[in-house]
Design a protein that fits this description.
The chain is of the alpha+beta class and 404 residues long. It folds into 2 domains: 13-168 and 231-315, 2-Layer Sandwich (BirA Bifunctional Protein, domain 2), CATH 3.30.930.10; 326-401, Rossmann fold. Helices cover 38% and strands 23% of the residues. It has 15 helices and 16 strands. It has helices at 13-32, 46-52, 58-63, 83-92, 137-153, 169-183, 192-200, 211-217, 220-226, 233-248, 293-296, 311-315, 335-347, 361-371, 380-385; strands at residues 36-37, 43-45, 66-69, 74-78, 102-111, 123-132, 159-165, 253-255, 267-275, 283-289, 304-310, 326-331, 352-354, 372-377, 388-392, 398-401. Strand 12 (326-331), helix 13 (335-347) and strand 13 (352-354) form a beta-alpha-beta unit. Helix 1 packs antiparallel against helix 5 (137-153) and helix 5 packs parallel to helix 10 (233-248). The protein is elongated and about 95 Å long.
């Protein structure tokens, strides 16, 4: 028997209503805030992710599905995330000429070669939104507000935003050097990934999950450097304004100086939204500002901010939506008449089904009681008399009706 590939999962009919509800609520909420849906290809040029996501990230170094195609062996990659693809589309289709803000949202499959585990698959799905063209912190606040409102719409409450500012490239470079100087004596004890990050992007070391590295980062002299207030006045003012906005709309937040997120393109604001009722693994979505990415990928300098969340992760946290019963089940031993009746019911907007196997009335009624609210019974008496018998399968009450 051929099975689904390791790290992939079928979304079965008894799960799909929950997925459809998530997409419906995302669409309704995002459209009310004037975000337009965008659908980008599931594969892009490999260079897009190397430049956009960053070659110091685990995603680029370890997790991408990359292959060559055609005689000239162009390298393409299944998208591991969608911000880079949305930015590519933004540039390619001249959206920078539109009046800002340009607001986009998406939902679709992503691909990362990871060790499959609960809530983490090699093919997974994300919902995200991106806001282009606004440098002011009001944009950050709106994105965070929409993120929390969406989670509340999905039934998740008691939310806290973990917040940090990574500063701009100008003030961050000095901070990077101070982190490198502090960690240099411990370089031989850091994991192999952190040794690479030490040279390419020292901030990414703070996102390391290796327990031995975490112990080093907790050392007093190291922690003092990490927790240092390094950002410049302009970045500080941006961060203070953002916090004021969040206070104004009653969004709870906490400052987490260790929060850097897993991608290289973030500048200034980074955030995660957590549910306080979920224990230690409580982060549900994350995002931040990436003011340099559009220019890095060939566009004009454009400020931008956004977030993404994993749909599989969200599905594991919310109540599953149960399938509704059909409005009608047509019970008849004359399939031609049953089919015609079902056709008329469906044309009127009702959900309806009939028995295709010519089973006896009792068997058909038994099935009808399991999957429908009402049974339309059409026997010889009904045909001769020109009426229908409609049975309420909840109360057992039957009625003779001329029309359905």
């Amino acid at each position: 028997m051929i099975k689904a590939q390791r790290g992939t999962k079928d979304i079965l009919p008894d799960e799909i209503l929950t997925w459809q509800d998530i997409q419906k609520k995302a669409q309704e909420l995002f459209q009310r805030a004037n975000y337009k849906e965008i659908r980008t290809p599931v594969f892009e040029a490999t260079e897009l992710f190397k430049r956009g996501v960053g070659d110091s990230t685990d995603i680029v170094n370890k997790e991408m599905y990359t292959f060559s195609v055609g005689n000239n062996e162009n390298s393409i990659t299944l998208r591991p995330e969608n911000t880079a693809g949305v930015v590519r589309s933004y540039i390619e289709h001249g959206m920078e000429r539109l009046s800002p803000p340009v607001k986009l949202w998406y939902m679709g499959p992503m691909f990362r070669y990871e060790r499959p585990q609960a809530g983490r698959q090699r093919q997974f799905h994300q919902i995200g939104l991106e806001l282009f063209g606004i440098k002011e912190p009001a944009a950050d606040a709106e994105v965070i507000m929409i993120a929390t409102e969406f989670l509340k719409a999905m039934g998740l409450y008691d939310l806290t935003v973990s917040l940090n500012s990574l500063g701009c490239p100008n003030c961050r470079n000095k901070y990077k050097e101070e982190i490198k100087n502090a960690l240099k004596p411990y370089l031989d004890k850091l994991c192999d990934d952190c040794k690479v990050r030490f040279e390419k992007n020292p901030l990414r070391m703070l996102d390391c999950k290796n327990e031995e590295c975490k112990i080093i980062f907790e050392k007093e002299e190291i922690k003092e450097v990490i927790l240092k207030d390094f950002i410049c006045d302009e970045c500080k003012n941006h961060f203070e304004e953002l916090k004021n906005y969040l206070n104004e709309i009653n969004i709870k937040y906490e400052i987490d100086k260790m929060l850097v997120r897993g991608l290289d393109y973030y500048t200034r604001t980074v955030f995660e939204v957590k549910s306080n009722s979920l224990g230690s693994q409580n982060a549900i979505l994350g995002g931040g500002r990436y003011d340099g990415l559009v220019e890095m990928l060939g566009g004009k300098p454009t400020p931008a901010v956004g977030f993404a969340l994993g749909v599989e992760r969200l599905c594991s946290l919310i109540n599953k939506i149960e399938d509704k019963k059909l409005d009608y089940f047509v019970v008849s031993t004359m399939p031609d008449i049953a089919l015609k009746t079902v056709f008329e019911l469906r044309k009127k907007g009702f959900s309806a089904e009939f028995d295709m196997q010519k089973r006896k009335f009792a068997k058909q009624l038994e099935k009808a009681s399991k999957i429908a609210n009402k049974a339309v019974i059409i026997g010889e008496d009904e045909i001769k008399g020109g009426y229908y018998t409609v049975k309420d399968l909840t109360t057992g009450v039957q009625a003779r009706e001329e029309k359905i």
